[in-house]
Design a protein that fits this description.
Blueprint (H helix, E strand, L loop, with lengths): L2 H15 L4 H13 L1 H27 L6 H10 L1 H14 L5 H35 L1
Helix pairs in contact: 1-2, 1-3, 2-3, 3-6, 4-6, 5-6
The structure holds zinc ion.
The site of zinc ion has 6 residues, from helix 1 and helix 3.
Length: 134
């Protein structure tokens, strides 16, 4: 890699983010037009940035389970019907634990697992749609 390419590629993260002074942006753009190596690096930087942006969105919007989901599931676990059904296996699995409490833990664990799976699926979908859009 020659010195100009090294300098241009050091600028690429700012270039992709649009955080360069106009004259440096211009210099990078001129070099990119005739340098395949730096074009490939630019494409790589764009993919990384899109992935990071998607991860940021996932953390902010999607990772938290819907509000009240855990509470409503715990409330359902307290109902006699479910407690009666879940008490048998739970009592054998966690000796000494109160049946009602065990059922609540089992349902809460299932809810957290489901929410995490949903968030992962949403995140993967967001990354795919961003990459194909850009
Ligand atoms: Zn170059």
């Amino acid at each position: 890699m020659n010195r100009i390419c090294a300098e241009v590629q050091a600028e690429l993260p700012d270039h992709v983010a649009g955080e360069q002074p106009w004259w440096r942006r211009r210099l990078v753009a001129v070099h990119l037009r005739r340098c395949a190596d730096c074009q490939a690096e630019l494409a790589h930087q764009r993919t990384v940035l899109a992935g990071l942006a998607a991860m940021g969105d996932v953390a902010a919007e999607d990772l938290a389970p819907p509000a009240g989901l855990l509470d409503s599931l715990l409330a359902q676990a307290e109902r006699p019907g479910l407690r009666g059904r879940a008490a048998g296996p739970a009592r054998g699995a966690i000796s000494g634990a109160r049946p009602g409490l065990s059922a609540a833990f089992l349902v809460a664990g299932a809810a957290v697992g489901t929410a995490a799976g949903y968030a992962t699926w949403r995140g993967a979908k967001a990354v795919r749609s961003r990459v194909t859009r850009s």
